[in-house]
Amino acid sequence: MKIEEGYIPFAGYQTYYRVVGECEPGRLPLLVIHGGPGASHYYLRPLDIIAQKYGRAVVYYDQLSCGNSKTPSLPDKWGCSFFLEELSCVRSYLAEHYGWDRLHALGQSWGGMLAMMYAIGEPWHGFGHEGLASMTVSSSPADMDLWLSEAIRLRSYLPQQMREALEQADVDGDYERPEVKAAAAEYYRRHVSLNPSEALRPEDVTPPDPVGDQCYHFMQGMSEFVVTGALSHWSVVDQLGQIDVPTLVTSGAADECTPIIAKQIADGIPGARWELFKDGTHWVHGEQQERFGAVVEGFLEQNE
Questions:
Q1: 69, 162, 231 from 82: Cα distances, Å
Q2: Which domain holds residue 185?
Q3: d(CA 130, CA 140)
Q4: Hey, which residues are catalytic here?
Q5: Rounded-to-integer distance, Cα 67 and Cα 85, Å
Q6: In the UniProt entry, which residues are flagged as the active site (predicted)?
C-alpha cells in the first residue's frame, strides 16, 4: 500500500504528515486529527483499514510539539487558536499539493474538540471550513466540566485503595508512587484501552515524548481528574447548533467518553448520528477495528 510522508511549514516549524493509500474515483480523503493534546497520530493507525479495504486515502498529521513534529516547549503558542491555525494550514497544503479541496475529517478525543471548533467557525476562528464534506467526532467531549465530572464518577467505581491513591496524587502532585501508577493503569484498562499492549503493533506505539507531555499538562493538567490547563471550563455546547456539516458521533460503552458525554454532542448538532460500540473503550477504533472502520466508511460514502 502506498505511503507518503512529508512536512508542512507552520509557525516557523515543520508539521509532519502521512498519507496512507490512494483515493479511488468518487472517494474523498479522510483527514484524521489525533488526541492528547500531545499524543501524536500513532495510536490512530488502526484507521489504516479504511485505506486498505475501501480505496480511500487516510491522512494523518502530528500536531506541533508531539510525535514527528518536533519543537521545543511552546507554552506561549499552545492553545485552541494555535492548533486550529495548524489544522487550517494542513488543509491548505493538502488542497494545493494533492488537489484535495474537499475531504472528510475524523477527530478523536481532543482531535474531535478541534474538529468541532473548526466546523463551528466564529468565535473560534475566522477562516471558514469550506470543503469539509463530513465530520466524525470520536470519543470527544463538548464540555470539559461534564468530562471531568464523568471521569470522577468513573474513578469512584475503582477499589477504595486505588481511588484514594488517585485522589491523594491530585492533592500532592506525586504521580510516581507505585500505588498511583497501579490505580491509573486500572482506570485506563477499564475506560481507555482494554489490552493496549496486545492490540497495538510496535510501529503504532507512540514513542516517549517529553515535550508532548508538557503540551498535555499545559492544555489539560496533570491528570484525567484535574483540569487546570488552558482547557479548563472549555465548552462548545451552546455553539453545536451552528454546525452545518454532516456529523457522526462515535464512542464506546465503557469509554471515558461516557454515553452522556457523546449524547450531548449528538443531540446538539443538527442531524447528527451516534454510534455506540458495545464493550468499547476510548480506543474502540483499535479494539473493534473492522466494525469501526466499516461504520465510519459507510457514513463517509453517504456524504461524498
A1: 14, 37, 13
A2: 3-301
A3: 23
A4: 109, 255, 282
A5: 18
A6: 109, 255, 282
